[in-house]
Design brief:
- The complex is a heterodimer.
- Chain A is globular and about 65 Å long.
- In chain A, strands 6-7-8-3-9-10-12-11 form an eight-stranded mixed beta sheet, sandwiched between helices. Chain A has a four-stranded antiparallel beta sheet with strand order 2-1-4-5.
- In chain A, helix 3 runs parallel beside helix 5, helix 4 packs across helix 5 and helix 5 packs parallel to helix 6.
- Chain A is an alpha/beta fold.
- In chain A, a hairpin with a 2-residue loop joins strand 9 and strand 10.
- Chain A has ten helices and twelve strands.
- By secondary structure, chain B is mainly α.
- Helices cover about 70% and strands about 0% of the residues of chain B.
- In chain B, helix 1 crosses helix 11 and helix 4 runs antiparallel to helix 9.
- The two termini of chain B are about 45 Å apart.
- Classes of the chains: A alpha/beta, B mainly alpha.
- Chains A and B meet through helix 2, helix 3 and helix 4 of A and helix 8, helix 9 and helix 12 of B.
- The complex binds adenosine-5'-triphosphate (ATP) and magnesium ion.
Chain lengths: ~350, ~300
Amino acid sequence: MENLIEIRNLSKTFRVRRGGVFNRSTVVTRAVEDVGIDIRKGEILGCVGGSGSGKSTFGRMVLRLIEPDAGTINYGGRDLLAYSAEELRQHRRRAQIVFQDPLQSLNPRRTVAENVARPLLNFGMDGRAAARRVDELFKLVGLDPRQSHRYPHEFSGGQCQRIAIARALAPEPEFLFLDEPVSALDVSIQAQILNLLKRLQVQLGLTYLFVSHDLKIVRQFCDRTMVMYRGKLLETGDSAPVYQAPLHPFTQDFLGTVLHARRNDAWERAAELAEDLEGAPPRMDGPHCPYAAACTRRIDRCTMAEPALQPAGAGRSVACFRHDPDLAAPSQATNSSPTGEIA
Amino acid sequence: MTGIPTALKPPIGRRSNLYFVWRGVLGDPVARIAAGVIAGMMLAAAFAPWISPWAPNAANPELRLMPPGTPGHLLGLDQQGRDILSRTLHGARLTLICGILPVVIGAAISIPLGMLGAWYRRLGAVIMRLMDVLFAFPMALLAIMLAALMGPGIGNMMIALVVTLIPYNTRVVYAAACLERDQAYVEAARAMATPDLKILFVEMLPNVVAASVVYSCTIIGAVVITAAGLSFLGLGVQPPTAEWGIMTSEGRSFIFNAPHIAAVPGIAITILVMAFNLLGDSLRDSLDPRTRLRLVKPAKET
Ligand SMILES: Nc1ncnc2c1ncn2[C@@H]1O[C@H](COP(=O)(O)OP(=O)(O)OP(=O)(O)O)[C@@H](O)[C@H]1O
Ligand SMILES: [Mg+2]
């Protein structure tokens, strides 16, 4: 399949200044570090990882809502980062975003019709044509166009998310960044929105970058999955094999804690455990694997060098020395993976 | 080249903010009274020359200090024998102008200032430091200093009041705009290639302006009182002119033997200030789409 977006070595470091004039200190967060991945035309690429692992930052950089510090983004054969202001403005038609909190992502003091029409008007459509297109979009996402003069708070969360999706689709984009689009919704509504997204993806030939905390959803919904940890990309591959036989120890632990506990319906606890994985393990000096401190299958090399993302067969890649073909000595430590065979 | 978007035609069924303000104020009995009081005062001020029984400065020294109820002088007479009712009606003009105009002009300056400051952070840092400098002085003191520098007169007093108000209103707008700036709908607007100024003054403005309107309504009271204070110090309206602030301070010396001289304009100021405060509260509700439906149609329909 053809690649729509080719991302290489993408990095972003946030520097937040604290304090006044005299005791100024800078907090440095490496939100995304050296991430490279291809997003293929017409696929749904899932992105999972704990809280603060840089998923949202990554997606926003792909849309150029956040300027990357380093790296390249090749969008449809062109260098996205070299776009002029006007080119970027035109590019906004092609790539859109849907947020986690649907109510917050709509302007509360504009009717939903005005909210949805805004991108159309921005790209020079006249008011009457925009109103007609808004009606079409409402039907497309399964809402009654006659309600379009209402205000966002008069709709339920699921309806608001439909409206937000309608707005994202208004300029006829080919790529959507879905930043946890169902996390704020009830479980029963989640399925409806996911079905809608799936239908739209097929119907309109869209490409999605889909971020979610809910691994079960990512596994069912996404063609491929990328696993992030502390701003780094640890593993990618088709969703089914990544979930059935995760290669990276972090993925194994992450899936293990989340999916096992989920069977016992202790979702809350599982989420906590997943957060723990993201918690601060002791910092090591020098280059090392980002997961080395918490890893149960660590080898000496892990604390001395940082593994690069390497192909691991069958379209998969993993950043782990244990799967490095150059380092053909994976036999000594035989800690069986704790969750290798989740069905 | 850049297709400048046309203004959005309101779709059918869409109701304007003004409609909701109107309905909200009518639907709330307290706001209705407050709006009625303010409207009444404005009418009285506008028609003062025709409805007041006497000229504001016509003095009848024989009847000086006479209490309310004196024949022909409903609210009594002051220390020079001038009719207090006539003076109060005429005084409403200057009092209302001195209270409202500086607030409106101040808001017109501080809304763009606060919003641009919230959006362009470097500029914002400079603006807010400047405001901090103005903040270092108490409101009344700053107004007195400025008015004294520029010399007495109504125009100068207004300028002094505007400058005094700007830091307060700018801070309110800035805080509201900073909250809005981080909302997802603003990021969504950026993702839709909405130009910066349009994000600020089309998307964010309605959310920010409500805070400023409510604040302005509550500050009008303080402005009326500060203006009265300036007049009292001889820096604003000059004595023979009828104005509630001056009238109150002139009546001060007779507070024991003729309390009505200070009381009538004083009560008028109190009522005016209260009416604006109550109206401000009601406006906050009717300007917010999340609460105003409740005001307009009492919970029915889905
Ligand atoms: N504007 C910002 N300024 C400073 N730090 C930021 C900013 N945005 C994100 N960060 C930091 O970057 C890191 C990654 O944030 P990001 O929002 O990308 O994580 P995430 O994977 O989306 O998390 P979540 O699942 O909670 O949404 C976090 O540590 C966050 O605190
Ligand atoms: Mg996020």
